[in-house]
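Write out this protein's structure.
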Amino acid sequence: MTRREDIETMVLEMPTSIKDYPFGENIAVYKLASTEGKMFAIIDETSMPVRLSLKCDPQLAELLREKYETVLPGYHLNKKHWNTIICTGQVSDDELMDFIRHSYELVKQGS
């Protein structure tokens, strides 16, 4: 999946997720309303291809970076706990949705 609109739809499918712009007008931050607004996803709306940053378990984050050229340490984020995915299609739609769910669950659980 490479279209920003499709990726955003996937992110907003998570229960109680809301979109905000605390870092400026072109950086969409997706938060859980139920966790006092803790963020679980970030999309740079000016980037092409789309750059999606997601929270990730540190061990899994390393494995994903080794497996995919398009999964990088979180851009301007804690590199241990965040990955930035360059959405070129290398990561399948199903896997991308799994990554989004993983990030959402980590934040929901308070990790």
